[in-house]
Structures are given as structure tokens and as C-alpha cells.
Write a structure and sequence with these properties.
Layout lengths: L2 H23 L14 H31 L2 E3 L6 H16 L7 E5 L6 E4 L7 E5 H6 L2 H17 L1 H28 L7 H43 L1 H26 L19 H9 L2
Parallel strand pairs: 2-4
Antiparallel strand pairs: 1-2, 3-4
Length: 292
């Protein structure tokens, strides 16, 4: 259920690129000295300002971006659907149990995938959204376990800690991208060096952002275990384990259907690397909860 991380990282990259273009156009943050070399102190300060600005702007926009991209429909306790009122009641009950003073917004988005996510810039301005596929595929106990997991993310302040980590990663991305771009620009004619430098900055920044996401994904996997434990405390360990087993059964069924559909193409359905995964393996998550 990595929508939370996907929206944050996507917004972060777009914001970083936009800030870089704007600063370049207005000539802000000139770290090239008169001799044509790099003033590393100035560049580091510039990188930190841009890096943390990018991550905090991404955090501030996270709830709005999620709503727009996923077409989330906000529901409340006055909804005409009893099913929707039950979902709101679950979110609010679990939120109170987690010690949240301000209740998250609750939304549903139309997708057949079994998914849910929590996002928002703070505990006061958070969102818990579930997919139509989740409500269709899972039973009541499994749904409660999933919602408890998302509420635990909010209660743990995972979006804020993710933002701080992303700010550090962004700082290194901006810093290294400009050093690499400066090095590349030294190999071209002096009259086109500024253009090459500008384009190279954008290319290296995107490339290094992708590499930096490995660190963010590793942290995300660690926080998933923590949210699982929080959900077990809120909804009960049995419901959280049941939710994970239900999700595993669903993913296995979907994988088998896909294997059947593409078998004639001789495509192997190999397990993808965990480097770019926001979530740990389901078996690992289940086993850790069982030992809790």
C-alpha cells in the first residue's frame, strides 16, 4: 500500500526540478567562483535550502495531490450509504484509540486494486483513503486491520519523519547533481557550457533522486513493520495478521491469473528486488507479528 510514498516522491521530484529551473532563471544561488571553480560552502548551503524546501512543499501538498490524482471522494458520518458510514466510524474509532485529537478525512476512490493509504502534512490535516477493491475483496476484520495500519502511520508521524529524511536526501541530490553538471560542462566549448550545465543539472538531479529513493524506500519498509505493530495494538493482533494474510491470498490469486494470461508470451514472473519496494515481504510482516 505504497500510494503514500509514491505521491510524496513524485511531488518531491517535480518540486525540486521546478525550484531548480526558477532559481536558475533568476540567477539565485551562484556557487561558481570567479576562477570557474565551485564554492563548496555556498553550494552546500544552497543545496540544503533547496532540498528541504522541496521536501516540505511536497509534504504540504501531499493530501491535495493524493485527492486529485486518485479522485478520492470524501465521505463522512452523514453519508447516505451505511457501508460508508461504517468505514468512517472505523477510522474515527481507531484514531481516538491512537490518541489523535483531530479526526482524519476519510475517502474512497474507485479502483479494483486492494489498497489503502494515509497521507497529509500533519496529524491535524490527514487523510485515510480506501479503494473500492479493498471493500469488495476483504471482510470486515481484514478491513479494520488495514485501516488500523494506516491510522498508525498518522499517529506515528511517519510523513513528517519521511519529510526530514527526504530533505537530507534532497540536499545530497542537489549538491552532487551540480558538481557532476559542472564537471560535464568543463568538457564542452565555453560558449555552450552554461546551457550544458543547466541541462545536466536537471538530468543528474532526476537520476540521483531515483538513486536516493532507495534510502527512502528502505526507511519506508522499516516504518511498515512499526505501523503493523501499531495496528496490532489498535485493532488486535489477530485482525492485523488476518488482514495481511487476506492481502497475500489476493496477491497470489492475481499473480496466478496474470501468469495464466501471459504464459503464451513466455514471460517469467520473478520476484522483484526489494531495493525499490516501499513495503517488506508479506511473509516477513506476518511472521514478525506472530512473534509479537
Amino acid at each position: 500500500m505504497g500510494k503514500r510514498i509514491f505521491f510524496f516522491l513524485l511531488t518531491n521530484v517535480l518540486v525540486l526540478v521546478t525550484i531548480s529551473i526558477v532559481l536558475r532563471v533568476f540567477g539565485v544561488g551562484n556557487y561558481i567562483n570567479q576562477a570557474g571553480g565551485i564554492d563548496f560552502g555556498t553550494l552546500l548551503v544552497f543545496s540544503a535550502i533547496v532540498g528541504f524546501s522541496g521536501s516540505f512543499i511536497s509534504l504540504a501538498m501531499s493530501r491535495w495531490i493524493a485527492k486529485k490524482m486518485m479522485n478520492v471522494r470524501i465521505i463522512d458520518q452523514n453519508s447516505s450509504s451505511s457501508r460508508e458510514r461504517e468505514i468512517v466510524e472505523k477510522v474515527h474509532r481507531l484514531s481516538r484509540a491512537a490518541g489523535l485529537v483531530h479526526m482524519p478525512e476519510v475517502g474512497i476512490y474507485d479502483s479494483p486494486e486492494v489498497n489503502a493509504f494515509a497521507t497529509g502534512p500533519s496529524k491535524k490535516r490527514s487523510l485515510v483513503a480506501v479503494s473500492a477493491g479493498l471493500l469488495h475483496e476483504m471482510d470486515d476484520d481484514a478491513i479494520e486491520g488495514v485501516i488500523a495500519h494506516e491510522v498508525a502511520h498518522i499517529a506515528n508521524g511517519d510523513m513528517v519523519t519521511m519529510t526530514l529524511l527526504q530533505g537530507v536526501v534532497n540536499t545530497f541530490v542537489v549538491f552532487l547533481a551540480r558538481i557532476a553538471a559542472w564537471a560535464v560542462s568543463r568538457f564542452v566549448r565555453e560558449d555552450i557550457a552554461p546551457i550544458v550545465h543547466f541541462v545536466a543539472v536537471l538530468v543528474f538531479q532526476i537520476a540521483f533522486s531515483i538513486l536516493g529513493s532507495i534510502v527512502v524506500f528502505a526507511y519506508s519498509r522499516y516504518r511498515e513493520f512499526h505501523a503493523d505493530r501499531g495496528a496490532a495494538d489498535l485493532a488486535g493482533k489477530d485482525k492485523m495478521i488476518h488482514a495481511l494474510r487476506s492481502l497475500k491470498a489476493y496477491t497470489n490469486r492475481i499473480s496466478e491469473e496474470n501468469d495464466t494470461a501471459i504464459s503464451t508470451l513466455k514471460i517469467n514472473n520473478k520476484k522483484k528486488s526489494m531495493l525499490f519496494s516501499t513495503h517488506p515481504d508479506l511473509d516477513d510482516r506476518i511472521s514478525r507479528l506472530e512473534m509479537k
